[in-house]
Structures are given as structure tokens and as C-alpha cells.
């Protein structure tokens, strides 16, 4: 695989070619990846997959017209043809007065932050196999587990580079490791229940032990055996951190520049207003060392920095790339994100809600009748209105304690009301790209099956 410097030079070279071919401006992305994935089931190797890829994407501007092309053929002849095709396409494209590169004066210069994303290591198929087997064995050893969907392990390394025609060129490398187990508990008479556990880390040394991941998967599955039904009505809903993080995904979508510019967000008029309850703070931290979504610069070459999206309940900023910022008369926020093809969109990095002040036991102590949700099903969320309705499974909360499992119910509300009603516990852990503590939301509508 190419080094970051080599990847940066590849991207810069294609940009230079595009300008020589008649583009007024251009930017390019080079992405390379090598990954190894392995799965086992019932103690037997089931699948091994290895992939390697190198791709290059080019975006060119002719006046206010633009076009994007991409290729995995990096031969000289193919790149020459790519440049010619991109410039010809741009000349025929419709004008877009908001299109263009990021403001030149805002580009990142100097040494990038040290984020410790690359441990330089690899794992062999044999090492991955042992990890996957250990995770599955630990899950199957939990009393009550009766079958397995398998254990899995993966390791990858990627290099990502961006270059622009107006003065930016940068690249970085990152490794990633993951480990999972998924098992079933119960029998045909009582019903089979499935659950899983998973962990991912940038560095091999930070990956949770296979035994702990497997044991957690088994215990979760067993706890779900023989679920009951929940009564319908308004009641408090408590969300496990695994699924509570989805609320931050809905927030990020609602405050993206494109949604605001198109007037398709339920938070359209909410900037500078109280969106969450007092005491709730949500931060985005692209500089988190070895974070799963850390990055030294954004998808347009702008510097990135930690920012509070929600401060003490108040919505502080939109997430803006340059195009949406120009359309809204604002400045880009360093949240541009892009793949090899197409124009930039926006994305947060390591997004998290700060921990609250109370333990989980205290959070549920005054709930006489409620639900603790560990799984969400379906996509019933309207980003324009904020209406929310999703299938769920989890556990009852009875007289302040988490009780037996329940399934086949729906939780519903409106995200505006849900955000204002959120109370976070004090159990925040950084395990995923988006992280929240256990969350309590009062006043949701629960419909039993």
C-alpha cells in the first residue's frame, strides 16, 4: 500500500493535470484500503475474505459548472482519459452558483494534529481465527445459549488523501480492528432469541478481549428468553447506549447544511434556541486520539476542531460544507465529508453526549412502569416533521427496577419533544463512533403487540 505522502502526491498530480486540461479549479481524493475479514461458526472456519483497493476521484470546475468522475484504473492512459472526460462533462453541466472549492483563506496549513490512528500493524488469518473462535466459545459457554450465528474478526489499514488546486494537499493513514459474536438462546418451545456484542478500535492494543465480548453476547441473548408483552400507553422509555446513539444521528441529519438550505429539517428555525433540556451538552471531537472517526482535516481541506453542537441544551451551530455555507450566507464549519465520487456532504466525527450526574439505577428508580429498550427495528423517522415511530425490544421497568424481557412493541413521539425530555445517566463510554450514556425519555407513547 502507498504511504500517505505517496497518496497525497497522487491526488495532487491529477489535480495539476486537470488544471492543465482546462479546469478553472479542481480537487481530488485518493483512497487505498487493505482488509482481512474472517468468520467462524460452531467452532469451524466459515469464511475468509481479503480485499485491496485503490481508487481516485476527481472533481473539476469550469466556471460555475462542475463534474465528478472516479476510477480504480490508475494507469497513465486511464488517468489522462479521466481528466479529459471530467473537463468535457463539466463544460456541459448546468451552472450551480453555490458550487466551488472551500475558501482559500480557510484551508489548513502546517502540521496536522497527532491523532494516533495507525499502529502500523497487521493480523494474520490465523490470529484473526483464534480471536473469532475465542469470542464464539465464550458466548456458547454461557448457560442457556443453544446455537450460534458465529464469531467474526477483522483488521484493515487505509490511506486517504485530498488535494485541491488552490493550495491544499494532505493525507493520513488509519488502522482498524473489530471483533464480534452473535448467538441464540432458548429452544423451539419457548422461542429462540438472538443478541450480539461487538467492539472496534483503531489500535490492536485497545480492542476489548475476545472472552469479554463473547460472554457479553451470550448473557444478552439469554436475558431475552421468553419475552412478554408490554401494555400500551404513555410511559418513560430508557435507551441502552447501544441504541440511544441513534438519536444523535437524527440530530446530525437535522442540522446538516443541505437539510437547512433545502428547508427539509424539523429544526429549521432552531439555531440559537433551546433544543435539549438544560444540562445536556453534545460535542463533536475530531481530535480524539485514536478515535474511530477522528480526522486531521475535513473533506475540503479545512482544519477541524472540537465543537459543542448543543451547549446546555442550546443549538449552537449547523454542520456546513462550503456549498451549503455559501447558500446560507455563513462560513463552513469543517464538517465536510466525502467519498471518492461526488461532491462533499457533511458528517460529524466523534459525536457524543456528555455524561449526566446520576447512575442508571437512580435514573430508573422512580419509574413505576416503563421500558428499557435494547433494540430498535425499522426506519420510522421523518426528518422533516420529526415524527418518530420504531419497533423495539428490551425489558420492562417495574417499580424502579429492570424486570423481564419484552418484545414486539413500538415507541413513538416527536424528536423535538424527545430531545427536550432526554435525561442522561453518568455511564458514558467511548466504544463507537457516536456515543451516549444511558438515556431516559419521559412521555413517549408505547404500543404493545
TrEMBL record:
Instruction: Look up the coiled coil feature and give its residue ranges.
Output: none
InterPro entries from the UniProt entry: EF_Hand_1_Ca_BS, Metalloprtase-TldD/E_C, Metalloprtase-TldD/E_cen_dom, Metalloprtase-TldD/E_N, PmbA, TldD/PmbA_N, TldD/PmbA_sf
Tell me the superkingdom of the source: Bacteria
Q: Where is the Metalloprotease TldD/E N-terminal domain?
A: 26-90
Instruction: Identify the residues that the record assigns to the Metalloprotease TldD/E C-terminal domain, covering every copy.
Output: 232-448
Q: Could you tell me which residue ranges the Metalloprotease TldD/E central domain spans?
A: 121-224
One Pfam family it belongs to: PmbA_TldD_1st
The UniProt family comment states: Belongs to the peptidase U62 family.
The name on file for this protein is TldD/PmbA family protein
Species = Sphingomonas insulae
Q: What is the lineage of its organism?
A: Bacteria, Pseudomonadati, Pseudomonadota, Alphaproteobacteria, Sphingomonadales
